[in-house]
Structures are given as C-alpha cells and as structure tokens.
Design brief:
By secondary structure, the chain is an alpha/beta fold. Helix content is 47%, strand content 21%. Strands 1, 2, 3, 4, 5, 6, 7, 8, 9 and 10 form a 10-stranded mixed β-sheet that branches. It is globular, with a radius of gyration of 21 Å. The chain contains 13 helices and 10 strands. The chain has helices spanning 2-22, 47-62, 82-91, 123-130, 133-144, 184-193, 205-210, 221-226, 252-257, 260-294, 304-314, 316-325, 327-333; strands at 26-28, 33-40, 67-72, 96-99, 148-163, 177-180, 197-200, 216-220, 235-251, 298-301.
C-alpha cells in the first residue's frame, strides 16, 4: 500500500514538473525577465538554428535583456514530435515554433501547397511571394484559425535529392527507397509520379542511410551539409523542384500575455532574423556546394530538357491537390 501511494505521489510530482516546465511566456519573478520558449525542427547549427540565434540576439538588444529567448532544437519540447509541437503552440506551452509550412497541414491542408513542385522558377520568386501582402494576409488567416499568428516565412533552400548513384531523370528514381518528410504531398509525389518507394521519416535518417535501409533522401543542401549526409551519400541531384521554406508562428495565447511594446519587439526582431536567414542562404549555399564537391560529393545539375521531363512527370499532382488545398490556394501561389 505504501509503495502504491509513493508511486502515485511520484507520478503527480512528475506531471507537475512537466506542466510547469512547459508553461509558455513565463514572467520570471526572480529577475523580472520574460521567457519565450522557441522550438524548431532542425539540428544545432542548421539554418533554422542559426536564424533562431539571430532572433534571440535581436530580441535581447531591443529589450535590453528583459526578454529572454530559449531555443530548443529538434522539436525539443515535443519529444521530436512535429505534430505535437503544433498542439503545444495552440495551447500556449510553446511560444514560437519554426517549421516547414506543410508540417501544419494535418490541421489545415492548405499548407500542403508549399510543397507542390515547380511553383517557383527561382528563389527570388519564392521570397517575393512569401513577402507579398496578399500572401502574408491569406496565410496569416490560416494560422489565426489555429490559434497562432504568423511572424513570417523565409527561404530554407531547395529540397535536393541525394543517393549513391547519379540521377538525371524521373526514371532513375523508379524503385528507390527514399526518405521523405511525413507529409502526404511528398509521399504522393515520389510514389505516384516518380514511382519510387517513399518512406516517411523525421529523424534517424543518417543511420538509415548508413545501414542502407533507405537508398536516398531529399533535403535542402544546408541540411544535407549540417546533417553530415555526405559521409554516407556520394551523389546529389540539384533539381530545384520543391523550394522549401520555414514558417514562424507564435501562439495567440503568448501574444495576449505580451504588452503591445513587447509584441512589437518580437515581431520586428523576427522580421530582421528572417531577412538574415534569406541573406545567409543566398551568400553561403554556393560555397557549401563547392566545399562538398571538393570533398568528393558529386552534384548533378539538370539541363533544360531534363528539367522539363521532371515537370511533365509530376504535373498530375496539381490535378489531385486541387481537391486538397483548393483552386484558390493554387491560384494564390501561381500569382493568378
């Protein structure tokens, strides 16, 4: 009986510790500082992490150290669970979250549109779109419906395909066991249009590549580099089919706790950090590729003819996803 009571007391105490550790936007009564808990989906020193650190620096400067940003990599407050992270933002237990927009598609399928292939001809086109008032207004409405507010979107790099063989055409992907994010749009793209065998996987990608349980993966070059995939993958196809982004969202519950002045500091600092991230990738992505090439990674670049074959192979996905995201959303992304 005593053991059962002790176990019950321990369970309650543990639950209370977890609860209080997850309470968002705390006002630390010891030093009067506001603590903002921020999570992102990538590993330390990734583009998401570097941009988050710039944000932390800007907030610290603008608030004279009164607002403290705590950064948790790899969805550190949700145990690596990308879906749970969104729930915790809605509840106000995570204050700010950074992720690929399609990670929110379980709650609103319109976010899948960000991962439809060949929407933008260049990175400049992508950045111009996400910073347009029309796009910001519409996408923020989607966030507001989920008890969140969008702080902004930045470029995260085109999602390129790595493997241990050269790839120049959709036929080269046929039958490949390839890691993709856990989003239906990517599973459909690789399975139905490239005839590959996609495996949804958020983490442990390196080990799976090393043990050859998967043949390849797709991610932006900055992620390929920071994840050290070059140690286990020899080839990369620069197909630029899906141009990735990171969306920054803040819990509406957190915003309600902040004064207008502090909310402005957060919003202005986020805008500056997002621009920093865009500039960083623009300045460093080519040098990352050069460094990887010098160390032995082979890069394939599509000719115009090869690119058209990829576009033709996956054109049908737009017909399928009209019913998922809506024609109005596709028109928004295509500037119609």
């Amino acid at each position: 009986m005593f053991k059962e009571k002790l176990t019950k007391i321990f369970s309650i105490a543990t639950a209370m510790i977890i609860f209080f550790s997850l309470m968002g936007c705390e006002d630390n009564s010891k030093d009067g500082k506001i603590i903002i808990r921020m999570t992102h989906t990538q590993q330390p020193e990734s583009i998401s992490d570097l941009t988050a650190k710039e944000f932390k620096k800007y907030v610290d400067e603008k608030s004279d150290g009164r607002i403290r940003i705590e950064i948790y990599q790899n969805c550190g407050l949700s145990g690596g669970d990308l879906t749970k992270a969104i729930e915790l933002v809605q509840a106000g237990n995570i204050d700010i979250h950074v992720c690929a927009p399609a990670n929110i598609a379980n709650y609103n399928p319109k976010f899948y549109a960000f991962w439809l292939p060949f929407l933008f001809d260049s990175t400049e086109d992508l950045v111009r779109f996400v910073n347009s008032e029309r796009a910001k207004t519409e996408i923020n409405k989607w966030c507001n419906d989920l008890e969140m507010t969008m702080l902004g979107i930045n470029n995260a790099g085109s999602r390129q395909i790595s493997s241990n063989k050269e790839i120049h055409s959709p036929e080269d992907l046929r039958g490949m066991n390839i890691r993709v994010p856990g989003a239906n749009v990517f599973i459909d793209l690789y399975r139905d249009y490239f005839k590959a065998n996609p495996t949804a996987m958020d983490f442990s990608v390196y080990t799976s590549l090393q043990q050859k349980t998967i043949d390849g993966q797709e991610n932006p070059i900055a992620v390929f580099n920071s994840s050290k995939f070059a140690e286990v993958q020899s080839n990369v196809l620069l197909w630029d089919g899906v141009r990735d982004t990171n969306i920054w969202v803040i819990s509406n519950k957190t915003l309600e706790k902040l004064s207008p002045e502090d909310a402005k500091i957060i919003q202005e600092s986020a805008a500056e950090a997002l621009q920093w991230g865009n500039d960083y990738l623009a300045a460093n992505e080519s040098s990352i590729i050069e460094k990887l090439e010098k160390n032995g990674t082979k890069f394939a670049r599509l000719t115009d003819e090869e690119r058209e074959k990829f576009k033709e192979a996956c054109a049908g996905i737009f017909v399928k996803y009209v019913n998922v995201v809506g024609q109005d959303v596709i028109d928004l992304f295509q500037g119609k």
